[in-house]
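Standup notes, structure subgroup. Blocker cleared on the adenosine-5'-diphosphate input:
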Amino acid sequence: MITYPIAKINIGLQVTSKRPDGFHNIETVFYPVPIQDALDVVASTSFQINISGIDLKEDSGNNLVVKAYELLKHDFELPPVKIHLHKNIPVGAGLGGGSSDAASMLLLLNDYFELGISEDQLLTYALQLGSDCPFFIRQQPAFARGRGELLEEIPLSLKGYHLVVVKPPVHISTAEAYKDVVPGESRISLKALVRFPVSKWQGNIQNKFEPTVFALHPEVREIKQTLYKLGAAFALMSGSGSAVYGLFRSEKKSISAYFPADYQVFFQKL
Ligand SMILES: C[C@@](CO)(OP(=O)(O)O)[C@H](O)COP(=O)(O)OP(=O)(O)OC[C@H]1O[C@@H](n2ccc(N)nc2=O)[C@H](O)[C@@H]1O
Ligand SMILES: Nc1ncnc2c1ncn2[C@@H]1O[C@H](COP(=O)(O)OP(=O)(O)O)[C@@H](O)[C@H]1O
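Run returned:
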């Protein structure tokens, strides 16, 4: 059975407080975007995993899709499986690729082996794999609080916008990014801000990780500035970075020419 895990962008990200469990409470809007991996699973006589595409530079046994399989195997009688994961979503980018692969694995195993796991239970399993993971169970635009798992779906649509995502060759560790951030409340709630037209978002919708990431990696700030110079209606770093996205009113196919050759540039009509 094959499935195509998608990516997300964060439209605004506020880190409101540090929690006793070591995580942070956040407020963000998750929006699904069609940058995709491919995940193929078949029942087999022995467990195997094969990864192609972007090199994850780590033991495939630690991959989140394997963790998702092991999590369900603990509670259900699953046969061994043969997994093929093709990585296309940039890694360490703030696009949630690993979390999405893990959530897709839960959904796929539930369907393939007819496990009968309810959506609520899938959300609980997903949170054990990552804070971003529950969003990828339903993949609907959502205002998120808590660790990112308290999801409230919102009627936000960016249909008609042209999305550009630029990922420089900078890998950002989410855990390291949280260590540097100074928590605080925002003046106006993000949930209220996203109801404004996109043309009013610039300067109002912010990502709390930008100041520290921009200070350490000025090239990430430059991407945002370039996207605005090229006419973006809104541009922001996604999650803990290092990918930056821009929303444009018109097609921007030649945009790659404005960035160095080793930057990955994706464009997609939403
Ligand atoms: C920052 C965000 C914004 O959407 O996304 P990314 O930039 O990773 O895509 C998320 O909060 C990332 O979620 P996720 O990538 O699933 O993180 P996890 O695996 O749960 O946690 C990795 C580490 O980040 C820190 N962490 C994560 C989430 C959170 N609400 N508070 C935290 O302090 C913890 O130190 C944790 O050990
Ligand atoms: N299937 C996977 N895809 C991507 N990264 C994975 C996967 N499984 C485990 N990882 C690990 O998770 C880390 C963060 O992955 P990713 O979700 O892409 O980050 P981010 O959301 O911060 O861009 C990677 O550096 C890698 O070590």
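Discussed briefly. The chain has two domains: 2-153, 162-269.
Next: hand off to the docking folks.
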